[in-house]
Write a structure and sequence with these properties.
- The chain has 581 residues and is an alpha+beta fold.
- It has 19 helices and 21 strands.
- The protein has helices spanning 28-75, 77-82, 84-106, 110-121, 127-143, 148-152, 167-179, 183-198, 207-220, 224-237, 244-261, 290-297, 306-309, 323-326, 350-360, 396-409, 440-446, 530-534, 557-566, and strands spanning 5-6, 9-14, 313-317, 330-336, 341-345, 365-366, 369-370, 377-378, 383-390, 411-412, 416-433, 451-456, 462-463, 466-468, 473-475, 482-486, 500-502, 505-507, 511-517, 541-544, 572-574.
- The protein has a 15-stranded mixed sheet that branches.
- Strand 20 (541-544), helix 19 and strand 21 form a beta-alpha-beta unit.
- Helix 10 packs antiparallel against helix 11.
- The longest helix is centred in the first third of the chain and has 48 residues, at 28-75.
- It is flat.
Length: 581
Amino acid sequence: MRKHLSLPALALVCCCFWGIQAEVYTSIGQMTDLIYTEKELVQSLKEYIQAEESKLAAVKSWANKLDVLTLASTADPEVYLAHPVNAYKLMKRLNTEWSELESLVLQDPSDGFISNMTVHRQYFPDEEDEKGAAKALMRLQDTYKLDSESFSKGKLPGVHHNAILTVDDCYDMGKTAYNEADYYHAVLWMQQALRQMDAGEEHVVSKADVLDYLSYSVYQMGDLPRAIELTRRLVAIDSSHQRAGGNLRYFEKLLSKQLKELNQEVQEPATEEPIQLGTYKRPKDYLPEREIYEGLCRGEGVKMTSARRSRLYCRYHDGNRNPRLLLQPMKEEDEWDSPHIVRYLNALSDSEIEKIKELAKPRLARATVRDPKTGVLTTANYRVSKSAWLEGEEDPVIERVNQRIEDITGLTTQTAELLQIANYGVGGQYEPHFDFSRRPQDIMVDGNRLATFLNYMSDVEAGGATVFPDFGAAIYPKKGTAVFWYNLFRSGEGDYRTRHAACPVLVGCKWGELDGEFNSNSQAPSNLNINQLIGVSHLTCFFDYFLVGAPCMYLSHRLQSNLHRNVTSGSFHIKKHKKED
């Protein structure tokens, strides 16, 4: 009988927007609903405009008709009223028809539109969503080293159409950063607003307001000469500005003091030059491996050497002769050698993916993390996504996916966590973290996460890689595939090399499915055969893996079957000529 281990963490990943009230920005899946909501509101607005135009046309018709009548009646009122019909119609108009006109004027065609707005308003994003989305753009800007001008003009990798930011959009971005005391990003976006303003772009915000925020933010970044120059520009535009004069005197006095302390002569500030992405250094934050992590997200610092590449293979995987995989084995590709990370092709079909999304979408809620101090689940800025949990009994598709994971890994999902569906929002990410628990009290109660099985349910145009800062690996989403690795050593100790992160999605929608579980015992059986632990059959036939330049070439199933019959032990490697990179 085949032995099973509890599988600590299995996952399906998805990146899109969905949301109801607050934190809508954390899920693109839910945000797609807002697109259709907005379309419906536009149609309602058009109907309101048409109703207003119809009402105005009717009122104009009344006015034109009455204008003709009054011209005739006022020419000689007595002669006009001498005719009994005119006298009757005057009584009728003033008693009845003017009342009808009054009712027409008092009609409010906006009722339908306002009613529609009221119905949909409960699903609208709030101020926190707008702020969260703005901060997400800044996160993307930092991670992928994009200047504000490229962002403003919509020049992003992987895009098929451009989306521009206006002067007022850039100003609002800068103001959001300023209100968070994030002067680094406030400078970048206020500078971009000023640049577009100076180029003649239309705007609502005044240049004085932009210079006010920009000059003070530059001062906060420690650049007094530039702060003085910007403040002088502000005074030149608005000499009566409430703060500009006082700020200018303070900046000049402070600069003079600093120069005297350095025994330097006071000099006039140099003419202002545009502030670029690298003009100021981004302040350090709580994440020690920030630079390594973001570099890997950009594809920099990936430690894929020729020697390591030569140790990576493709293979057919039948799950230790699992009956369900004998006729149609999985295509397995090595992604990394140590720790061993593999990718399975065709792990999910398109129809399965759509069904899982359909089941998950109504349940998506902001993803949480466990506070390392209190152990309480809470939301965090370093995990921006929404998730839903699905049980196998809910639908045959979920049960089938769970069974497939068992067949592939040789682990049981009976004691696993529920199938977790993750959908990432604007700049969705999950910064470096461990899947296994490091809290002894949690492990004593629930066990620990032995392994991670991550299904990618969408392709991503740009960004969204899964990266491992410790050993410099980057694994990119590919729809329908799954990656698998162990989080624990056979001793039950955590493998700290598996600290990993989900990079922000720059362009696209990333969906993922994670089936996670806590093992009832954190110790993996010590007498377990290494091939059983890894879940790879020792009869599987290997051949060289072409990592660069061409996809893996797989043997025909007939050849594979023959090799299985002929080989009784060990691994049989089939050497192929390597394709040039």
